[in-house]
Amino acid sequence: MEETISLQELFATLKKRLGMIAILTLLAVIIAGVVSYKVLTPIYETSTQILVNQEKSETAQLLNQNIQTDLQLINTYSVIIKSPAILEPVSQELDLGLTVEQLNSKITVTNAENSQVVNVAVKDPDPAIAVDIANTTANVFQEKIQELMKVDNVSILAPAVMKENPAPIAPNPMMNMAIAAVIGLMLGVGIAFLLDYLDTTLKNDQDIEDVLDLPLLGVISPIKEDATDLETSSRRRAG
């Protein structure tokens, strides 16, 4: 019985504050949309692929050994790509006023397990600059690796290309507004229960019984006079 009453009170509180909850949810969605479309800077991403591969060997055994060597070198190459030895020449060649640390923060190097392909991804507010950084980094790495490692097993598999209508990867306005709607809804519900908890006024006979812990013996109902009675009373007073 108590559980049923608690659920009734719960829904009654939500129903009573439904307008406030809806306003807070809508306000949160609007703020998230304005921030996503008007305030946050769009970030674009592009990537170039580098193939790590030795020259073809005549025997299958040597070919397998070369592949295993390349796979072992890929982790080293991933570190070298983001090192000052590569990024300093990239910074000088592009002349974008970016430091090595700034370039490093824009570049992400990944590769799939047991794959000889290294993916160099670059994020930047300007999609054209992202393409330039990715391709320049790949070209510089291809040249410098011969001096640093004394090997010639790197080739550019797929350079970064400037798309006709590039789409930013961030922010995601729809996702931000959906999250804001959930947060606004939770905030509205929380405030509704808080206001109901802080409201200590007695609204009905049940509240009186709950507070005093005494049975209610009777209720004095307000006496409503109809229009005829009021008119009669007025005439008597006038007379």
UniProtKB/TrEMBL annotation:
The keyword Cell membrane applies. Residues 141-194 form the Tyrosine-protein kinase G-rich domain. Pfam families: GNVR (PF13807), Wzz (PF02706). One of its GO terms (cellular component) is plasma membrane. The chain crosses the membrane at residues 21-40, 174-195. Keywords: Cell membrane, Membrane, Transmembrane, Transmembrane helix. This is Capsular polysaccharide biosynthesis protein. It comes from Planomicrobium soli. Belongs to the CpsC/CapA family. Residues 3-94 form the Polysaccharide chain length determinant N-terminal domain. It is found in: Cell membrane. Its main location: membrane. One of its GO terms (molecular function) is protein tyrosine kinase activity. It is a multi-pass membrane protein.
